[in-house]
Amino acid sequence: MKKTKLFSFFFAFLLFFSLGAAFIQPAQAASEKKVAEGSVLKKIKKSGELVVGTSADYPPLEFTASENGKTKYVGVDIELAKDIAQDLGVKLVIKNMSFDSLLVALETGKVDMVISAMTPTPERKQSVAFSKIYYKPSGEYFLVNKKDKDKYTSIQSLKGQTIGAQTGSNQFNLVKSQMKDSKLKGLGKINNLVLALQSGKVSAVVVEELIAKAYAENNNSLAAVRSNLKETQSGNAVAIAKGQDELVAQVNKTIDHVQKKDLINKEYLPAAAKYMKTEKKSNTFDKYIPYFFKGIWYTIVITVFSVIIGIVLGIILALMRLSKNPILHWLAVCYIEFIRGTPQMVQILFVYFGIGYLISNLSALVAGIIAIGLNSGAYVAEDIRSGIDSLPKGQMEAARSLGLSRQKAFRYVIIPQAIKNIWPALGNEFITLLKDSSLVSVIGVAELMYQTQLVQTSTYKGVLPLFIAMIIYFIMTFSLTRLLNHFEKRMKRNDSND
Predict the structure, then answer these.
(1) Are 161 and 151 in contact (CB under 8 A)?
(2) Coil, strand, or helix at residue 497?
(3) Which residues are within 8 A (CB) of 288 and not within 5 positions of it... i.e. 6 or more apart?
């Protein structure tokens, strides 16, 4: 009997994911066909928008500034993106996300191109195409704590120390290949690496000269030291999907004009320096209050809609798992076990990038809500199932004896009682869900954690924005806990009255 059940489980498991594979493969083929037909330039012209992906934590190449309480993307790469959009006669749209997610976004059609101080390495060229080089960095620097500026001056002096570098960057590969006697720590955001540096988690962070000097000039506790890393790459270029020869040609025309007029040195860098100087002078946290309010609003929206999805899906899955129909039962088991057995961040990335093969206009916000809701549904289903199993079997028999169908018995008798029993567990799930909403910042949703990172980038401070975010999360979770406890007391009061 046990062998039969085990076989049935694996059969249902394979069936479930075979359907998933069949769902993704045609979509992937359609996406590859779309790229091969050179449709990106046509899509840009038709929509009137050029969507550019960047990781805006790399001043002065790309970073954020506050203007009238709103986030403004500025820097050398942003100015180049503006000129490309202007030459194409379309509006520029910036999508800010982690550096290591940019090429995935490009390959899945979430962005039309990537302009983010990206070096055209041989490995990257296998996946995407590149424009001409538009900027050549003067070399790599060590960003260190000021007290260590005379101590950590070379590869040799950092032997045995932990070195930070942005995941997926050229600097990450340089440290990996040339500093084998040091420990490498990779993070997706430069501001998190700087925070790790200031807290002593790493001894130095490897970045380009301009970026190192920008952080050192705006943070008195840091210093920029020229490294002796050997740079073999040619510079920064615009990344574009393979097969987009017309778009590459258009971008190269803009780059030719920029280089001919020397716009990077004459206009782009001075403009970036001006923004950095202005931000430094007016770097009070009062101006960043709107950032946190915007993050709170998005966090609440994500939480509310994810809770709705989680409850509806959880009830359906719980009933499927309790069903006598073996197919429905094992499909529910496969879904629940798979969702609970995989990291939520991976699920968020899969929904946004993977399902993007089918729904190219799926926004990051909607994708985040769907992913968190689908994840919550699996846990809610198990809570509801345990609540139903905890009820005496006589409850169902009594309901059926009164003439109620099985469906109505569950709806009017079983589930209401189960909800009362599992309310504390559901409350914990809702609170966890509110905190887990921070994970969608990885795909560029402007919730609280995303806004906190923008403040970190703009202020060149790491700890204070995080502390403010912690206080805000505590206030929200504490308020939600009080609300849930209120409803729990009302349920108990109603039971005692009965």
Answers:
(1) no
(2) helix
(3) 66, 455, 458, 459, 465
Residue 169 has phi, psi (to 5 degrees) of: -90, 165
What is the pLDDT at residue 356? 65
Residue 25 amino acid letter: Q
**Is the peptide bond between 60 and the residue preceding it cis, with omega within 30 degrees of 0?**
yes
CB 74, CB 116: distance < 8 Å: no
pLDDT digits (tens, 9 = 90+) for 201-256: 999 999 988 888 888 888 889 999 999 998 766 789 999 999 999 999 999 999 99
Write down the pLDDT at residue 496.
55
Q: Are 78 and 94 in contact (CB under 8 A)?
A: yes
Q: If you ran DSSP here, which 8-state letter would residue 446 be given? A: -
Query: In whole angstroms, how far apart are CA 192 and each of 166, 448, 462?
Result: 9, 16, 7
Closest of 205, 286, 232 to residue 459, by C-alpha: 286
Length of the chain, please?
498
Q: Which residues contact 337 (CB under 8 A, 6 or more apart)?
A: none
Specify the pLDDT at position 474.
95
The tokens 């009594």 sit on which residue? Answer: 398
CA distance 332 to 343: 19
Q: How far apart are CA 447 and CA 435, in angstroms?
A: 11
Express each pLDDT in 137-189 by its tens digit. 878 999 999 999 999 999 999 999 999 999 888 889 899 999 999 999 998 88
CA 496 to chain CA centroid, nearest Å:
47
Residue 246, both tokens: 């017309």
Is the sign of the CA dihedral 121, 124, 129, 135 positive or negative?
Answer: negative
Distance CA 450, CA 436 (A): 13
Instruction: Report d(CA 236, CA 99) in Å as an integer.
Output: 14
Q: pTM (2 decimals)?
A: 0.77
Query: Closest Cα partner for 465 from 194, 214, 223, 281?
Result: 194
**pLDDT tens across 336-392, in order?**
999 999 999 999 999 998 886 677 678 889 999 999 999 999 999 988 888 877 777
pLDDT at 401 over 50: yes
End-to-end CA distance of the chain: 44
Structure tokens at 362: 């799926």
Q: Give one DSSP letter per residue of 366-418, joined into a string.
A: HHHHHHHHHHHHHHHHHHHHHHHHTS-THHHHHHHHTT--HHHHIIIIIHHHH
